[in-house]
Design brief:
3 domains; rod-shaped; MFS_trans_sf; 435 residues; single chain
């Protein structure tokens, strides 16, 4: 049973070897194609130079990936020591990191580069929308002072009319110095009111222009077609919108209100009382002093309100940075996890095949180690062993015959040497033998 299972595993490994090579080649080719698309998106230059550069890079990536995983599939399953396995795993981790660095991020750029650029443009639209709203609010903050200024202007005008018609302040009707002072204060506050209204109209116009720019930018983000020309047009709209936001920051009337409020109190010039008698002059002086105090209070309120407006945080200058598709994929990687997963899987899927082969070879070794040698040997191996045995036996017999023949030849040669001795030598040998 165990022999059959082990043999089936052997047969399975042999059967999938071609499929493994085909899978490695297909995955390496797919990675090379998407790497080519990613490289083209970040290279600059003539079309021919970009084409050849991208082709060479993608071909190198394909060959490198195929060679790396082929080596791992060939050697890793047969390394059985812990030290060797650890070393191979370290090499695999290093190779996987290098593959991700040279290929996977470009694959992700090819898969989700356009979407990442659209994400960048959409994020830019949101940022500039916030900037436009903040600049608009800062510019309109001075409008909150308009009701107070209008009430002050109306109050001064009404007091001047009452004094002229009924003498409500001094008890004497007519257009004297008090009426002149109140009319002067009403005119100054009215002028400030007109300035605020004019500023509101300018702010409204600029804000409308900014809204149109933002609308065009949103249209470019969601429009169909290639992303590059849309990104170029988007950049020009950003420049125009930046100018609108800067203009809004400069149209705030808060500084003008601050200066006008100071002028109301510091530049207050009361006319000389023109009453016909001392009593009327005294009353006019008292009324004008009251007007001075009222103007000073109004000036203080306006100055404090203007200071609060000026203390608002101004809109920070924002700089739009165009990105390539590869840079956008890296910056917004968290928004494109499926694309990154697919790009990395194309490059690292062969690692799964390597571990499958390692597990199968490990199972084969464990099954064969538990069997005696007689059960581990196959019929083909037995026949080969018998052939080797017969060859060794035959070679041994021939060797014995060769040794016997060599010994006989050696003895014959010795006899021949004795026979060929000259007579004197043989006489000496005989006398020696007689002795």
């Amino acid at each position: 049973m165990a022999v059959g299972a082990s043999q089936r595993l052997h047969d399975g490994v042999a059967a999938v070897e071609t499929m493994t090579r085909f899978a490695l080649a297909a995955l390496a080719l797919a990675s090379g194609v998407y790497t080519y698309l990613g490289v083209r998106s970040i290279l600059d230059g003539s079309a021919t130079a970009v084409f050849f550069a991208a082709m060479i890079y993608s071909a190198s990536v394909s060959v490198g990936i195929y060679a790396f995983w082929t080596y791992m599939a060939r050697f890793y399953p047969h390394v059985i020591t812990h030290t060797g396995r650890a070393a191979m795993l370290g090499v695999m981790a290093l190779g996987a990191a290098m593959i991700i660095a040279m290929s996977s991020w470009l694959n992700a750029a090819a898969l989700a580069g356009s979407a990442a650029l659209e994400q960048h443009l959409a994020q830019t639209v949101e940022d500039y929308t916030a900037d436009l709203d903040q600049a608009h609010q800062n510019a309109l903050a001075a409008q909150s002072l308009l009701p107070d200024i209008q009430r002050a202007s109306e109050r001064f005008a009404q007091l001047a009319a009452s004094e002229r018609q009924t003498g409500a302040l001094t008890g004497t009707t007519g257009a004297g110095s008090v009426v002149q002072l109140l009319t002067q204060m009403s005119a100054q506050t009215k002028e400030l009111e007109n300035g605020i209204n004019a500023s509101r109209e300018q702010v409204t116009t600029l804000f409308g222009q900014g809204q149109k720019r933002l609308e065009t930018m949103r249209t470019l983000v969601s429009a169909p077609g290639a992303i590059e020309p849309r990104a170029d047009q988007f950049s020009s709209e950003v420049v125009a919108l930046t100018g609108v936001i800067a203009s809004l920051g400069q149209t705030s009337i808060a500084p003008s209100i601050r200066r006008a409020a100071d002028d109301l109190s510091l530049g207050f010039i009361a006319p000389v009382a023109d009453g016909g008698d001392a009593d009327l002059v005294n009353r006019q002086d008292q009324v004008m002093e009251t007007v001075r105090a009222s103007v000073a209070a109004q000036s203080k309120v306006l100055s404090e309100a203007a200071d609060e407006i000026l203390a608002r945080t101004p809109v920070a200058e924002r700089r739009f940075v165009p990105l390539s598709s590869a840079e956008a994929v890296l910056r917004y990687a968290a928004d494109f996890i499926p694309a990154w997963a697919g790009a990395i899987s194309i490059d690292l899927l062969p690692g799964v095949l390597v571990f499958i082969l390692a597990a199968v070879h490990g199972a084969i070794r464990k099954q064969e180690e538990k069997l005696p040698f007689a059960e581990r040997i196959t019929a083909a191996e037995l026949l080969q062993a018998l052939d080797v045995q017969r060859a060794v036996t035959a070679n041994g017999a021939n060797l014995g015959e060769m040794v016997t023949q060599a010994e006989a030849e050696s003895k014959a040669e010795e006899l021949n040497n004795i026979t060929n001795l000259d007579p004197r030598t043989r006489a000496k040998d005989r006398s020696h033998e007689d002795r």
